[in-house]
Amino acid sequence: MAKGSGPLLTDELDIVIPTIRNLDFLEMWRPFFESYHLIIVQDGDPTKTIKVPPGFDYELYNRNDINRILGPKASCISFKDSACRCFGYMVSKKKYIFTIDDDCFVAKDPSGKEINALAQHIKNLLSPSTPSSSIHCMIPFCEGADFVRGYPFSLREGVPTAVSHGLWLNIPDYDAPTQLVKPCERNTRYVNSVLTIPKGTLFPMCGMNLAFDRELIGPAMYFGLMGDGQPIGRYDDMWAGWCTKVICDHLRLGVKTGLPYIWHSKASNPFVNLKKEYNGIFWQEELIPFFQQAVLPKDCTTVQKCYVELSKQVRDKLGKVDPYFTKLADAMVTWIEAWDELNPSGPSTVLPNGKAK
Ligand SMILES: O=c1ccn([C@@H]2O[C@H](COP(=O)(O)OP(=O)(O)O[C@H]3O[C@@H](CO)[C@H](O)[C@H]3O)[C@@H](O)[C@H]2O)c(=O)[nH]1
Ligand SMILES: [Mn+2]
C-alpha cells in the first residue's frame, strides 16, 4: 500500500488462486487481499466443496464450469495441475492479475516487517522496465536511486512493465532431482532488489507469486497443457514464461523479477514430481534453444498474433521432438480462440457457479 493511502487498483486487479484445498491460507493475507476480488479455480473433483473464509469477494469455477463456459475449447485448460489457473486469467475482466498458490504465506523482510506482496507487485507493474540494458547496479525508478553514469538517456524512459515475477523464502521451487538431493535446503536469502530481465534473456517463471498486466500480455499467459492425460507436469508456468518473454521482447514490454517475497510453506512430493517432470527435464534442453532462436515477424503486432505465430513454430520445430508439442501447438491456438471469444471488445456473460460473496 502506498504510504498514507489504502490498497491500490482494487477495482482493476483480480487475484487468481488455483486450488485443490480449502483456502484457510487467506486468513493470513486478509489485511492485504480483502479489498480485492478473487477468482478461485478449483481443480480436481468438482463435487468437492472448497471452503473460503468469510469476508472475501470471490467467484469460483470448477471443472464443470470450465466445460460449460468453454465447451470443446475446455480441452486447452489442464486438469489435475495448477496450470488450470490460466482459466482465471481468461474470465477476469480486470487490467491486472496477481496469482498465488494456496501454500504461500506472508513473508517477513529482514527487519521483521510483514511483506505486502501485492503492493510490491503493483509498484513493479506501475513503473517502467529497462530491458535494453545490462543489469544495473542501481534500481532506477525508485526513491533515492537513478540511472548511473553511462546509461543512455534515450533508454531512460524504459518500456511498460508487463510481468512482475516475485520470489519465495523457505521451500525453494526446485525440480524433483534437485529436491531429492537437497531435501532440507531452504531459501533464507532475502535480496532487496527488483531487476528487469534483459531483452533476449529467458527466465524460469514460477507461477506461485506472479503478477501481470492482463491487457498488455494476458493472451500469452497460457499455462501449457499439463496434468491429467499429458506426458508432462509442473512445466506450465515455465512454458508461459518462455512464450511471454519472447513476446515481451518482440513487443517492447518489460519483465521484472525479484521483490516481493512470499513464504512458500509446502514441499510437494519429489517422487511424484519426478514422474510429472521427467519429460520436461529432458525436453527443456531442446526448448531453451528453441525459444532463444524464436523470431517473430514484424507484422505480429498483437499478443494474439505473436502467440499464434509461436504456435506454428512450436508445431514445425518441436513437433519432431515429441508428438506432445503438436498437441500443445493446437492447444495454444484453442487458448487464443477461447480468449478472444471470452474477451471480445464488449463485456462477456461468463457466469461462475459461486455467487460473488
Ligand atoms: O493438481 C493440482 C495440484 C495443485 N494445485 C494447486 O496449485 C498450487 C500449487 O500446488 P503445490 O503448492 O502443491 O505445488 P508445488 O509443487 O509447491 O508448486 C508447483 O506448482 C507450480 C507453482 O505454482 C509449479 O508447477 C510448482 O512450483 C496450489 O495452489 C494447489 O492447490 C492444483 O490446482 N491442482
Ligand atoms: Mn507450493
UniProtKB/TrEMBL annotation:
It catalyses: UDP-beta-L-arabinofuranose = UDP-beta-L-arabinopyranose. It is found in: Golgi apparatus. GO terms for biological process: cell wall organization; plant-type cell wall organization or biogenesis; UDP-L-arabinose metabolic process. Glycans are attached at residue 149. The record marks 149, 156 as: Required for activity. Its EC number is 5.4.99.30. The keyword Cell wall biogenesis/degradation applies. The keyword Glycoprotein applies. One of its GO terms (cellular component) is cytosol. It holds the Pfam family RGP. Keywords: Cell wall biogenesis/degradation, Glycoprotein, Golgi apparatus. It is an enzyme of class 5 (isomerase). One of its GO terms (molecular function) is UDP-arabinopyranose mutase activity. Probable UDP-L-arabinose mutase involved in the biosynthesis of cell wall non-cellulosic polysaccharides. Belongs to the RGP family. This is UDP-arabinopyranose mutase. It comes from Vanilla planifolia (Vanilla).
